[in-house]
Amino acid sequence: MLFSPITIGTLNLKNRIVRSATLEGMADKDGNPSEEYIKYYQNILNQNIGLVITGFMYVNVEGKAIQPGQASLCSESVIPLYKKITNRKGDTKIFAQISHCGRQTDRKVTGGNLWAPSKKRSLYFGGVPDILSEEKINSIIRDYCNSAYFAKLAGFDGIQLHAAHGYLIHQFILSSVNKRSDIYGIDSKKGIGTFFFEKVIEGVREKCGEEFPISVKISGADDYGNTFNQKKLRELVRFLDSKNICLIEISYGTMDYPLNIIRGSDIPIDSILKYNLKYKTESIVKKFIFKKCLLPVLKTKIKKNYKSYNEQYAQIAKEETKIPIVLVGGLRSREEMERQLSNKSCDMISMCRPFICENDLAVKLLNKKNYSSCCISCNLCLIMCDTDKPTRCYQKVCNGS
User: Fold this and answer.
1) Which of 221, 258, 247 is nearest to 352 (CA)?
2) What is the pLDDT of residue 400?
3) Do both 49 and 62 map to the same domain?
4) What is the pLDDT of residues 14-30, one digit of tens each?
5) Does residue 399 form part of some domain?
């Protein structure tokens, strides 16, 4: 089934493999995609993938991430650069993922305010956010719509709204973060906040036309206790079903616990203390304290890595909608991918780190039915996203990258 075609919205995809959104770290300080960025996508669009989703692009400067090299889609000036990617001969489709980080960024990076639905601060990012006024909310909605329109003009086949991992749309959804009492607050019946999400979707449709494909990425659960449970996940999927989204990708968590989103074989603590933008230190004493005191506590918060670790959330989504569901997380072998598709846990298979490790993975999966990715989930690629180096694999375990 992995290499059977599928229709999503108005698009026909040649197979069910998705390159999940992955920070490239290849844009300049103004978010303009570099020649390296352009060449990267020109290459991966010729690797037999059904759908490629770009790394998250910020819709305005105040919504950019703390990681260097994030690409922008908030100005018409970038359209000619992205056209160098989308003007292609192959049949692989490409979506632009658009996002606003909300409270999950740093004022020192954006040079502006730290916006969020309420003053609830992020456990990891820290700063106390500025509460969004309705006027500012409407401004950000327009930014989402403009970014989607720029994506359309640039030749992207559709967009993915990033509503997962604790970014702004997700912040409005979660009752643990959204403490508003107005129309943008939590719906007392559903237990989630969807009004901001709804306005973004409707605005994009009005700006780009009804036929322009809109996909979304959501988190099936998080690490804030049981505040976002299965009932609320079902409500969220039903909401998306009512909005006729073309594709729903199911991930997990927020950036307060990034190693639960992208689960690994171990915690690369030495690399974290050397490169992480929040924890890096040269102090031997601080490193000792972190390893002896904080690391044991951190380990109790980190979830185990296992095959298809978001499967249960994808299955719940499948029960609530006919919209194609994309499963991401812990998928490495063709055997496991085929099992998930055959069991109808999902309709498509999405991967991030395996394509960092070997960009020709889809070709190998096609040619070898028993093939498994070389990716060992060491997560060094994740840690190194905090540096100014382009995203790449740091293990020499495969010669296909």
Assistant:
1) 258
2) 44
3) yes
4) 999 999 999 999 999 99
5) no
